[in-house]
Amino acid sequence: MSAMPTATTALGKHPVSPVSLEVRDDDVVLSRWLWLVKWLLVIPHHVVLFFLWIGLFLVTVVAFFAILITGGYPRALFDFNVGVMRWTWRVEYYAYGSLGTDRYPPFALREVADYPAHFDIAYPEHLSRGLVLVKSWLLILPQLLVVGLFTGGFRVSFGLAAIIAFYAGVSLLFTGRYPRGMHDLNIGLHRWAARVLAYGLLLTDVYPPYRLDLGEREPMD
Q1: Domain spans of the chain?
Q2: What CA–CA distance (Å, rounded) separates 126 from 169?
């Protein structure tokens, strides 16, 4: 009698995420004390972003129906929402989300090539009409529970990411150094949160990986 074939399983390779969150500032020099007053300096940004995020949620509602009917995310609406997330990431990186740069963030939705914090999402030519019904309230829940442990989300700086940024600020104040390990971990936490948010805002059908990609650059695969 021939032996029964042994059932095997394999860990599938996760699709490449269309969400890109990177930092490009190899020669960064940070002030020891400026981080203490950044809460004041970013107030104008927070005022503008408050209204932009209201717009983002309204646009997402419109995009929901557009995807449901046509299977596509209107490009102008997509670019606006990505722009709001990009602007937010620049402010977070400058202020208490990361404290990673002292260069004041620009007031712009577009990509600014010479600013150290970068964010983008590849535009999807087609999105699932079925997934749009369950992504934002059901499929995203396990990810939200995980992300909630280490960050208050992409928009608000709380949780582990903010704690790391605070300790980095203390290190800057007393030693003039931002420990590389703290920086890379902080970026990885924001990267994970950004992928989850992008999925919840219907900007992609690629489910966020349960993976902490540390460092300034996106992984190659």
Answers
A1: 31-200
A2: 43
